[in-house]
Amino acid sequence: MNKYSRNQRVTGITKILTENPNKTINLKIFTELFNAAKSTISEDIVIVRETLSDLSMGRVETVAGAAGGVKYICGVSNQESKIFAEELCKVLVQGDRVIPGNFIYMTDIMYNPEIVHKAGVILASVFNELDIDYVVTVETKGIPLAYEVAKMLGVQLVIVRRDPKVTEGSTVSINYVSGSSNRIQTMSLSRKSIKKGSKCIFIDDFMKAGGTATGIINLLKEFESELLGIGVLVNDIETRHKLIEEYMSIVLFKGINDEGKAELTPSNFFEKM
Fold first, then answer.
1. Where are the domains of the chain?
2. Dihedral sign of CA atoms 122, 124, 127, 128 in order
3. SS (HEC) of 137-151
4. Tens digit of pLDDT per residue, the chain (273 long)?
5. What is the CATH number assigned to the segment(s) 78-271?
6. Which DSSP string corresponds to 216-271?
7. What is the distance, to the nearest Å, from the Cα of residue 64 to the centroid of all Cα atoms in its chain?
8. Which helix (H) or strand (E) element contains residue 127?
């Protein structure tokens, strides 16, 4: 078998860990892959751990026990998060993004891999201390963001539908009141989607009054499950009355000014980090 240098082993270990967030990887996998002693691999992991920590790129934790090993927990610095939020605001305040009805065009943002990945890491970093089973979202533009968060947390993504589909099998549907329009809407979830007693977080691209999030909370109760956190990319603070109290956002939408341009600012959440 090939013998690998320390630089090669460290590179390989870093890639494997960061591509499998929150997944415990036994040291035996590394010893066999790199044809190296366990003590040598342990020294390599120390280097990986210290480097990621110094660069605020997450951390590597040791999991004790026979089935233990090491796992990577995503992370990002407060400064990097704030810089990302500021850059995103600059993109979203461009005049041609305001469309009829005083909405902001965000479709290209939500399908931009680089932007969605960075936003996903930020949101996942907020919730990575929670022991969750699923990331939940609704079938809107927020799906790519929710997927990225689920990937970084190492859990499954569950998509709640606006209308039940025959391919979903037996579903649970509830009616909820939209917080912004006060209209009755419906959401449904397949009974096979999540297990009873699960712990979840809800991720969305935009929050206005929080009606959708409230609907998610009530829908999860039908599965005897609990919502532990809510994260959104953009929070509309122009809508002052929120139906929920606890949530995290990256950018704050303050409305459309007299010049017809959107006003946005980084969330004050970064000041608390």
1. 6-73, 78-271
2. negative
3. EECCCCHHHHHHHHH
4. 688 999 999 999 999 999 999 999 999 999 999 999 999 999 999 999 999 999 999 999 999 887 789 999 999 999 999 999 999 999 999 878 888 877 889 999 999 999 999 999 999 999 999 999 999 999 989 999 999 999 999 999 999 998 877 778 888 999 888 756 678 889 999 999 999 999 999 999 999 889 999 999 999 999 999 999 999 999 998 887 888 888 999 999 998 888 888 899 999 876 655
5. 3.40.50.2020
6. HHHHHHTTT-EEEEEEEEEEETTS---S-S--EEEEEEEEE-TTS-EEEEE-GGGG
7. 27
8. helix 113-127
Its pTM surpasses 0.90: yes
The helix (run of H) or strand (run of E) holding residue 44 is helix 38-54
Structure tokens at 92: 């979203």
What would the two tokens of residue 161 be?
């539908």
Using alpha carbons, list the distances in angstroms from residue 192 to 62, 88, 160, 176, 204.
33, 37, 12, 22, 22
The Cα–Cα gap between 209 and 232 comes to 12
Q: What is the number of residues in the chain?
A: 273
Residues 6+ apart with CB under 8 A from 112: none
Beta-carbon count within 10 A of 104 CB: 18
Phi then psi dihedrals of residue 77, to 5 deg:
-75, 155
DSSP string, 142-210: THHHHHHHHHHHT-EEEEEBSS--GGG-SEEEEEEE-TTT--EEEEEEETTTS-TT-EEEEEEEEESSS
6-73: CATH class: mainly alpha
Bridge-based pairing state of the strands 134-138 and 199-207: parallel
